[in-house]
Design goal:
The chain is of the alpha+beta class. The protein has four helices and six strands.
């Protein structure tokens, strides 16, 4: 007889705590986002934030007929701003293809994103390539700019009112 879902989830949590297994990558991406935020003065995210899904998705029932609520989590979230980051790893080819490229995973992600959007969340989805392991560089600057814009946080640089909304280097309005 095979393991129950609860037993499997328990084993995966134990493996993740020890630093191995497929769940390690999720923590690594969240760690990267958190470190980048700290270094670049972006507010710190809440890690593995579980958002409330009660009433936002069709009810689900287990095999015994008991109501089963979803326990979705964002990799990183700023609950006050209702902004979240989802890190999708394992999208490459070969044996390391993750759940984000399989039919079941894509369907589950779509359901989760829809529920989050219906609750007013802005969900920023990044691939592993878009979350660099370094703390500085062009990719980091792009990630920081996206996070700042979504959170409504200034980068501290002075901009004249003429530059705001038109981008730098734009010609003045006639």
């Amino acid at each position: 007889m095979g393991r129950t879902r609860r037993e499997t989830q328990h084993l995966l949590r134990l493996v993740a705590k020890r630093g191995g297994g497929k769940h390690r990558a999720v923590r690594d991406y969240g760690d990267r986002v958190e470190k980048i935020c700290r270094v670049h003065d972006v507010p710190a995210p809440v890690r593995e934030y579980q958002f409330d899904t009660d009433g936002w998705t069709p009810p689900r029932y287990d095999k015994n007929g008991n109501l089963k609520l979803r326990k979705w989590r964002f990799d990183c979230a700023w609950p006050d701003a209702k902004v979240a980051v989802e890190c999708h790893g394992g999208i490459g080819g070969g044996a390391n293809r993750g759940r984000h490229v399989r039919r079941g995973g894509i369907n589950a992600d779509a359901e989760k994103m829809t529920a989050a959007q219906l609750q007013g969340w802005t969900v920023l989805v990044f691939t592993a390539d878009q979350i660099p392991s370094s703390l500085f560089g062009e990719k980091v600057d792009q990630l920081v700019a996206v996070l700042r814009r979504a959170l409504g946080v200034s980068d501290g640089k002075d901009q004249s009112e003429d530059q705001i909304g038109r981008g730098r280097g734009s010609a003045p309005h006639p």
